[in-house]
């Protein structure tokens, strides 16, 4: 059996070179590595046989070892074999002995560890690893930004050093110790805790501590700390906003609801410059109804926004929440000199808008937008509820008023009709004259029945005041007066109209109002009567309307209120409900009715608050 040279049993590749870098020996591992036999290489120069090595570290390393007579070691990647080798050369007077070891596995591990280290170093979370003695083996740079502790203060120290420097109290430090033990001994694959700590700025923060096992020569557990203060605060604010919703829904006053919304936004969301504007439906502008102290201090009061004015109106009209990061970059601001740098404007449904601003640009982010959206949605729900409650109260009050009116009308109808029918009965019991007369009046039976029919019509008209008027149309006052005269007891030449005008009203009911006023004057007249109709509010700037002034027997001042009351038993009511019906129709239009006396006697009826009344040019 042939003996195997000792160097052939070496697992490393080995070859020997003389002083001229000629091969003098190769073991079997070297033959395999170089893919050449000993017979081919012995006596030949390395650089001639393997020219590709000239561009590697081999020449410099080997020349250095030969010239300085010192051992050299270096690592080299062999491309054909896709293998990393560690080359070690030992010089002698006769040449070099070269050993080459496959270190690919070690290099792969080092590369993986380097990649992991780079990842750990790049993440924003603080990461420390611990050995079994709970001493810190490694710490990344984020420990400084997250916990306010430099890694140089931690390496080699017990984990208690970290909890002390991060301001974690003793009770929570014990929880951390238990979590580390559970993961280290395998009771748990991972643990997670949320604990308060003191941040780099000395402000209380909330941290998410995660504990995971690691496979390392020294470390057994990794502790990953993430600052979740913003998320924790967001969750806290959302929970608080639900409580604010309860306050909002307990109120039925729109201004109180808006005040709650503004101040909860200031306190919970740290929005000191905020305000709420509600739409004034009749006039069509956004009226400020609530604002924070910061808003009033900064602006000295909140402005009113008319249609088309400023970002507030634009966003209200568009209907979606808008974030404006830098107001200096925007044109057509309502106030070009505004001190605000950024703002969020959020419509509250169709009710109005909430605006919050900051003196700094880019002050707000999407989480602020989300929270304000939640606040305004809750505010909208509260205002919707307040509107429904107000409608319900108004309807209840109107039903109560309607009930009172109908009860009063029933009394009038019962008493007046009874008197009319008694008069007719008396007349029928007379001796059969062709011309029946009443004992106390000259009216005929037909006239008396007409009076009863008119009373029934008035009662029906009066009861209609419980509901809204019909469709309002643009009417000419003069033509409406003509229609009313045609159905009244007056002659057309008894009317004097001072000026032409137009207004919007329910045509039938306005005619009935004027007809009733005219009949009241005719009933009080002893002979002919003249009625003057003129406009109010155009000369003195007061509320607009018109007056009806007659020269019939005046209604005395102490009876002015009584004649407007359907329950009054007063002769001035004439036929039917009289002036009480005039007031009922006026109030159905949201107008105001009053009775006074003229400067020269007679009775003056005034109908005011007709916002649509306009003088016609002649």
From TrEMBL:
Spell out the coiled coil positions from the record: 389-416
Q: What is its EC number?
A: 2.7.13.3
InterPro entries (alphabetical): BphY/WalK/GraS-like, GAF, GAF-like_dom_sf, HATPase_C_sf, HATPase_dom, His_kinase_dom, PAS, PAS-like_dom_sf
Kindly state which keywords UniProt assigns to this record, in alphabetical order: ATP-binding, Coiled coil, Kinase, Membrane, Nucleotide-binding, Transferase, Transmembrane, Transmembrane helix, Two-component regulatory system
Q: Which residues form the PAS domain?
A: 7-44, 112-165
What is the official name of this protein in its record?
Answer: histidine kinase
Question: Subcellular localization, per the record?
Answer: Membrane
Q: What cellular component terms from Gene Ontology apply here? A: membrane
- How does the UniProt record describe the way this protein sits in the membrane? Multi-pass membrane protein
SMART domains (UniProt xref): GAF, HATPase_c, PAS
Q: Which organism is it from?
A: Natrinema zhouii
Catalytic activity reads:
ATP + protein L-histidine = ADP + protein N-phospho-L-histidine
**Which processes are annotated in GO (biological process)?**
osmosensory signaling via phosphorelay pathway
What Gene3D superfamilies does the database record attribute to this sequence?
3.30.450.40, Histidine kinase-like ATPase, C-terminal domain, PAS domain
Would you say which domain of life the source belongs to?
Archaea
Q: Which parts of the sequence belong to the Histidine kinase domain? A: 412-613
